[in-house]
Amino acid sequence: MSTSPKQLGKYELQERLGQGGMAEVWKALDPQLKRYVAIKFLHANLRSDPDFMNRFQREGQAIAALRHPNIVQVYDFQVSSPEDENQMAYMVMDYIEGSTLADYIRRTSYAHNFPSDEEIVRLFTPISLAIDYAHRQRMIHRDIKPANILLDTRNTVHNSMGEPILTDFGIVKMLGTATITSTGTSMGTPLYISPEQVEGQPGNERSDIYSLGVMLYEICAGQPIYRGDTPYAIMAQHVNGHPIPPSQLNSHISSEVDAVISCCLAKDPQARFSNAAAMIVALSAAFHLPVPDQVRYSISSFNQQVRPSSSNPSHPELPSNSASYPEISSISSSSSELPTIAPTSDAQAARNDDVEVSEGETVAARLTPSMSESGATKLSGASYPLSPAGPVTPLPASMATPILPVAPTRRTNTRKRLFAIASIILVILLLGGSAGVYVLLRGRAATPVTSTIVGTASFFSSSQFGDQGASAINDSIQVHLQHVSDPATGNNYYAWLQDNQAETASVFLGVLKVTNGDARLSYTDAQHRDLLAQMSRFLVTEETASVTPGNPSLNAKQWRYVASFPQKPSPVDNFSYLDHIRHLLSGEPALAHLHLQNGVDYWLQSNTEEMYKSAIEARDHGSLPEVRQLLTDILYYLDGKCASQDLNGAPGPKVPENTAIMHAATISLLDCTQLTEPPGHLTHVALHLNGIVKAPGAPAQQIPLAAQVNSDLNPLRAWMQQLRTDALQLVQMDDAHLGQARALRNDMVIQASYTIGGRVDPSTRVLQPGVEQICGEISLLATLEVFPYNPLNQYG
Q1: What is the pTM of this model?
Q2: Are 305 and 462 in contact (CB under 8 A)?
């Protein structure tokens, strides 16, 4: 802007906050809502760039759709009137009171007043989760740097310097600066640009991980990663240079932290962490700190692979009838209570107590750095045993999961798994020798169980895309054993997944290495098959190290550790513990019959998230016909086939926006009296939780977890019912009242946000979790307890 305008549409421009090569930002007042906003004017020549408008509309819509507490909220994006001689494109967003992360780093690390380990983890955790969230929405930043992270001083609950808020998502792509130009302007800033972007590539998710690693380097080392007289001199070092390890510049930084940063800064994008939350898990381990709760239970981190990917193909990445429901007759309409599980003493314990976490409880805990000749810290593959070597025995084609219609396309990988099951103490914590095994349920009182458990093997989802284009589920397993003796000289431990059927081929997970009695292994199936749907047992054999076996030994004398899911059917519902776990997490026959693939919790979470997005759009959209369509969509998610009754006499559409929503709403979130089998997803989940508690042989550690999750469904149901009440009132209004019903539309969003992230009960100050945490805890039920093999005990 060449002038200083005082008015832009309804906004009163007050002061210029900053100016850069791509944009300038003004503080403005919205007199209608009586709040301050920030307006970013983009430096684009609209007349000489005919493609700008298309990019601006496309990227602007994507940016405005981002809804995360640590990403600045964009409210509007416009181009000033074409009659204006100085036609300008601008975006209206939240005004954040505070400085930038760049200012903070200058005051602290650059002044050798380094933040503590805890402060670094707390600072980078919300930044990382925001980046992962945006990546799941197919939004890549491409210019992450401290100057693009604002510190909100109005929110200092978690970070005393202010809560970090990311800005400028999509700006680089919007302006079309996809490569380095002759003037030195590049996609990204020289100090933080990734090697592949320097070489002219557009950049991807792992380019953002690189930039995040550069920021971590700065805050740990107290100086820029590279220095140079020109931008090109700095950028060339990103391609060919090796930074000084931070531990050589800051005596408080360990070689373990060097290794984490080195992983972020790998020249090969595939050698970096696959997502930002994985970096946080590794960083927490390197600092000997517990993994933050936000990482464990956030909406951005359920699908994490806590490791950098390998580009080596030998190291792969990380009944058909409807089920019967004997309890369904006791459940009536959507206002009914969920099935009740009698709470145990553990389930009644306080939920917000601190969870004690032992050191090294992550797969990245034993990162061992090795120094290159140039002094750069690199990850030693031998000390980072996350991917197995050796063959992977394929399952027969007859065991392949049937290909069903894919999930709604509007949902972008929203089934979130708590990958860091091992990192959050693997559900149980072994307290050494015969001290006992204790349950960790969000900090509840511990319940001692048999002392012979040596660890766990937990299924999780990598979130990668399989051959059919759908996001993989249950395609990975994390193993963590403690107090394990070394194998005999010349032998190795080999880990396997098996099924009870003799003709089913075993899956070789890899060599299980032991370090000081601690054994860890992470495996992701190369074909991204649903391992939980096909495997039910875990076995560790001790065999010669000279030849990697193609199948586990049949000689039980070579079996060392075993685990299996209980499979005895209950006389109540004829389902076993394994059946209930699979129906929740893998595939439910009653849903498959309706062409809804995946487990019940997938659809509970997916439809809740889509409903939340629709609620936000319905609140913010200025077109009343669009608002009515969104309200119709919401009611279909909530009531399914019963939504047609809700819409009787209401102006506006009577069917969802598209067939994808109609298909997803085949089964409603709440119960619909027109369809009693299967019930609504909330009730369906509760039925399986009841079944888990009553299943013969159900692990003692899982019973209080199932009981607590069942209890958590009740406030979730209440929020959905209130949201439904709001939507029903709005959908029946005429246009005049609907346009003025801002308070009711806002309350609908508040209720929808509770369904996602939960809320703190104002009377008890206890967190009532939303669907993200609930589904994450359901995934913890897919954990095998590993015991030393005993021929007197039945295996499987």
Answers
A1: 0.53
A2: yes
Paired with 308 in beta bridges are: 273
For 498, the 3-state DSSP assignment is strand
Determine contact, residues 236/267, Cβ cutoff 8 Å.
Answer: no
Architecture of the CATH domain 7-94:
2-Layer Sandwich (3.30)
DSSP-based three-state secondary structure for 460: strand
Distance CA 382, CA 740 (A): 64
Domain(s) labelled CATH 3.30.200.20 in the chain stretch across: 7-94
Which residues lie below 8 Å from residue 456, measured CB to CB, with a gap of 6+? 421, 422, 426, 427, 428, 479, 480, 563, 783, 784, 785, 786
- Tens of pLDDT, residues 616-664: 889 988 889 999 999 999 999 999 999 998 998 899 899 999 999 999 9
Which letter does DSSP use for residue 715 in this model? H
pLDDT in tens, 600-625: 999 999 999 999 989 988 998 888 99
Could you tell me if 297 and 771 are in contact, meaning their C-beta atoms sit under 8 angstroms apart?
no
Q: Three-state DSSP class for 239?
A: helix
Say which DSSP state 328 is in: G
CATH for the 101-310+360-366 domain, from 3.40.50.300, 3.40.50.720, 1.10.510.10, 1.20.120.10: 1.10.510.10
Distance (Å, whole) CA 695 – CA 535 = 19
Contact 358, 483 (CB under 8 A): no
Q: What is the largest distance, in Å, between two alpha-carbon atoms of the chain?
A: 87
